[in-house]
């Protein structure tokens, strides 16, 4: 009897400690978020002790190096938005059209070819896309646009768009294929063409999922780093001219960590203020995307 | 008397059918766009990179001369990084998934963890880089080491592993749980003997895909200062290191045309590694999804 009891100590201990261990694992993910927020917050506060908050959010000059340093983030934000807008102009129509094709028109055979290709595109590292933008897309545009500089907003913007296409296509397709067939059949029985079924029944029914995928794509474009670091240049500029060299928030962070901003300098702390801005932007987008897909989820 | 003018109806129908045909072609072109880009990208990279691809490319360190440049240190660094990232991220990810699926009660705290994980998945990788730089490199004084990089990468891919492990666990039929409990097994015994073995193919598939994401990531490691000119192999987890994507980034940034060709060669190696990992993941998925 006694022997049996001592044999059970280890299993019992495991039984008790297993849930604790798993809970600790789950808590790590919360600690990560807290770590991110604390890191950004603490260093950003140090930054704002040296640079006024008003200058930061309203200043139109971003010139963090040298004697007359100036920290107005608007040029970095405009650079980021410029890239994002170009990317979305490429990604939304092509992504949505691909989704419509895959979900409403394509035969199984075609779908079996196109979907894996989109998956491969989604899995290509962004440094490869950056290389592609710099060494292929830019030279190609240089043939068409006279005196287009090597670093410009146009080609990384387009390539960021290409990078996002698979995401928009696959999320929108998911939303569209969860529209029940009864609705399609109803419309077809009324004499609708496939196009009318797609545009007047399926897309409106799946709209919340589709818009959520756009917003998520937007967030991805804002946070994309390597493509813009490689191909957009490092000239913070308040401009809407896509042929100029610009800098994005992510591009600036990379530039500083690559270079020689010494630990403790205002320039060093500025990457956290920029990182905080970036974090807030993408967090809002991500929450918005989740909210849209939950709030407007159609019940069929 | 004709109530309906057949000609008008016919015209309207033709218009609708034609626009259906045209849009169908346009949608197809959009879907084909991805394929075209992929073909162009691969053609460019392979046609430029193949001439530099020989055995010495794998056995040489980085060099100022393009024809002598190699990826020995970068390959070793990527392997070292995986050796740290894989066990940590899998343990944390699978642990979190087991907690959420098996132990967690549906309450505020659980919902908070779920929401937190889906938000973490959307945080840009540079921000993870800033976290790694501050917490691991400076605060914990790990320096610009493999360990700091591996921990940063683990946190970055954690959400992907959690979600795929959750799906793998959820796919196990409830009858298997009931059978296990009916035999008198405890919860932990059921997890260890029934849930984990059944979920392992799914966990591995998701894990490999997440790790292939980590192998291709550049930005967070640039932040924590993985160096790009390393002429030695990392000796342990506290050594400084470089990885393939950073080596490629370095070559891309140089003005000399030759280094762009070398970068293409590096990209070929990177893409082949990713392709291999993805094939393994797909193989595992197909092999086990039949049952």
UniProtKB/TrEMBL annotation, chain B:
Family: Belongs to the binding-protein-dependent transport system permease family. CysTW subfamily.
Ranges annotated as spanning the membrane: 26-46, 79-100, 120-140, 146-164, 194-215, 261-284
GO molecular function, one term: phosphate transmembrane transporter activity
Main subcellular location: membrane
InterPro entries reported in the protein's UniProt record: MetI-like, MetI-like_sf, Phosphate_PstA
The protein, known as: Phosphate transport system permease protein PstA
Membrane topology: Multi-pass membrane protein
Ranges of residues in domain ABC transmembrane type-1: 75-280
PROSITE patterns in UniProt: ABC_TM1 (PS50928)
UniProt keyword list: Cell membrane, Membrane, Transmembrane, Transmembrane helix, Transport
SUPFAM superfamilies named among the record's database cross-references: MetI-like
GO biological process, one term: phosphate ion transmembrane transport
GO cellular component: plasma membrane
Gene3D superfamilies on file: MetI-like
